[in-house]
């Protein structure tokens, strides 16, 4: 047997077939294995909450193999009527802020209330070998063992767009499998927070208390996106500092214009390690769901997100179709030099390039 | 003679030609008039600082007539080597903040120092009859009379993109005409601040002191763009409130991450009406120019802006080429309904639409 296993969908090398093996039964076995990848069977299993089937489904959705993609798309389509029923929570924070510890404490709190929790991740830097799953699985030990929890690492992919799409589609499958809460975690590389923000109902920013100047160094635009800022590691000597930081953030948040959802972002402290403050955070999120369901914004936001993904996917395809043409690449370079030397305007250069379009 | 004059480039109706008129001399006259619209002559006149020629040049650039556009493009191209030499300042603020009074006081201060000042505007809501020129010309009386000042209203156009392009190109002509300072004013409708921000070196936000909660109601993203916030109408009873507001803003600005330019946005108070605080604002801007010229960011920013306009123009053309196809419009509507009813995903819908592409 080969030791390396690149994908759950890949057949193992296996032992060589001896002459006395019943070839027919092998065919049967192969047929049976194939059946497992049949969209209809997978759907039935997923709808029953079968986590193994869910895993296989997500693997299909994440695949680059065209056959698998076709089955994945079929599966997605049939799962859609059962989707849309969870609460989607985005969680971000710099490395070291205690995201895994927080998600474990938060997830355990939810499963103890009978909820089923799925944890997905968006990490555009992850690869199959160097994914966040290993880290998460060791760090979220209690949640991994919890039968009401499902943890899935970030799909690997070259572009954030690709990773995002796979995660967005995995949400559909998790919802069809009956998960009540979907947590999407991100490490905050590049535009990944914006990406997560555009696929969740509630966006939570995890922070640490710092040296007093709390908002310095926060990435541009993150505060505007946050529905809550939670200062983690509010334990021991840190507790006082954390409360001070919370005040600072509360003050800062007031300076921002009101959100369309009419929700005023909240600030909270917690110690994920000691499981302190977790209940409050969950009650804050249920408040949010109440407020936005009542004023209609919950559904409006999801519709807007769907439209965003539709337009976004089209636009990025149109752009890459254009800018990836070798002749455009070459001409763009020379036009930029002409602009730099004041020999053409950006508008004249744009017209020139558009005329080259295939 | 017709009373209405839709464009400076349009021939007037004129009186009917009597039989005794020398037809040859009329031809000569017409020829002479045509010559005025010749790019080469215009260039010569503009380079000599001829404001009438500059006006005509801008009218050509703003025209929708294809002949005029052709001459305008030629003129632009020949003006380019003489462009790029001014300081471009963007000024925004809600109606009532005193933009015109400020620009007049500021402009007069600059001309009194021997500078030549051009004031352009971006107002996507303006039209030929309802432009901001009438307002500006009455409000900026002293500046209008100043021979070192040139005031031009917002070009009319249906889209912000169109208006922006015309203004961006007018800057080139103003610079070729030897203007040292180009002020671009905007009323702040829609995305117009972002548009102005992407064509200026320095972006100034005019504010009034309010009821204490100064940052409430400021449009998202404006603060991040500002290189300076100036509290106007700091006169009489307002002076104290204005200083309080300035403190509030200073505090808030510290909460934002450092700008690429390494420039920390400044807060200042002024009374444009009483010409108080204007000198300080100008010295703040010259400081900015010093700092960013020294660290290279002044040129980097302009290069980035040029690239932005190039890519922006291409992308918006690609999008409008796609989304304006009648069959795409129709299919988009039905795909959105399918998404809304959970019958398709945004990604599958995007693929479907892209396949319809002409």
How much helical structure, as a percent, in the residues of chain A? 40-55%
So what's the CATH class of the largest domain in chain A? Alpha Beta
Number of helices of chain A: 15
User: Largest interface, and how many residues on either side?
Assistant: A-B, 53 and 53 residues
Return the structural class of chain A: alpha/beta
Number of domains of chain A: 3
Give a short account of the largest sheet of chain A.
Answer: 7 strands, parallel
Description:
The first copy, chain A, is built from 15 helices and 7 strands. The first copy, chain A, starts with 22 loop residues before the first helix and ends with a helix. The first copy, chain A, has a 7-stranded parallel sheet with strand order 3-2-4-1-5-6-7, with helices on both faces. In chain A, α2 (39-47) crosses α3, α2 packs across α4 (66-79) and α3 runs antiparallel to α8. In chain A, 53% of the residues lie in helices and 10% in strands. The radius of gyration of chain A is 24 Å and the shape is globular. In chain A, β5 (202-207), α10 (222-225) and β6 form a beta-alpha-beta unit. Chain A folds into 3 domains: 25-77, Single alpha-helices involved in coiled-coils or other helix-helix interfaces, CATH 1.20.5; 83-295, P-loop containing nucleotide triphosphate hydrolases (Rossmann fold), CATH 3.40.50; 310-355, no CATH class. With 358 residues, chain A is of the alpha/beta class. At the A-B interface, α4, α8, α13, α14 and α15 of A face α4, α8, α13, α14 and α15 of B.
């Amino acid at each position: 047997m080969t030791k390396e296993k690149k994908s759950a969908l890949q057949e193992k090398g296996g032992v060589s077939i001896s002459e006395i093996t019943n070839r027919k039964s092998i065919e049967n076995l192969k047929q049976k294995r194939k059946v497992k990848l049949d969209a209809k069977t997978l759907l039935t299993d997923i709808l029953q909450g079968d986590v193994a089937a869910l895993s296989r489904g997500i693997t299909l959705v994440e695949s680059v193999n065209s056959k698998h993609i076709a089955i994945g798309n079929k599966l997605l389509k049939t799962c859609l009527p059962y989707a849309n029923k969870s609460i989607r929570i985005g969680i971000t924070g710099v490395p070291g802020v205690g995201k895994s510890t927080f998600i474990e404490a938060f997830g355990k709190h939810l499963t103890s209330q009978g909820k089923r929790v799925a944890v997905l991740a968006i990490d555009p830097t992850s690869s199959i070998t160097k994914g966040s799953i290993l880290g998460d699985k060791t760090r979220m030990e209690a949640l991994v063992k919890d039968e009401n929890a499902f943890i899935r690492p970030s799909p690997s992919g070259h572009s954030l767009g690709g990773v995002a799409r796979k995660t967005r589609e995995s949400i559909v499958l998790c919802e069809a499998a009956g998960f009540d809460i979907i947590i999407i975690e991100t490490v905050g590389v590049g535009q990944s927070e914006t990406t997560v923000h555009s696929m969740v109902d509630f966006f939570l920013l995890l922070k640490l208390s710092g040296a007093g100047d709390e908002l310095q160094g926060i990435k541009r635009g993150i505060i505007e996106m946050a529905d809550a800022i939670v200062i983690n590691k509010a334990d021991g000597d840190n507790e006082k500092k954390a409360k001070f930081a919370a005040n600072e953030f509360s003050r800062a948040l007031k300076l921002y214009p009101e959100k369309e959802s009419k929700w005023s972002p909240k600030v909270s402290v917690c110690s994920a390690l000691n499981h302190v403050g977790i209940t409050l955070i969950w009650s804050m999120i249920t408040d949010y769901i109440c407020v936005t369901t009542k004023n209609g914004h919950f559904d409006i936001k999801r519709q807007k997100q769907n439209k965003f993904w539709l337009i976004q996917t089209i636009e990025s395809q149109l752009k890459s179709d254009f800018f990836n043409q070798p002749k455009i690449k070459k001409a763009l370079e020379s036009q930029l030099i002409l602009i730099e030397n004041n020999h053409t305007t950006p508008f004249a250069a744009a017209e020139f390039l558009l005329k080259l379009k295939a």
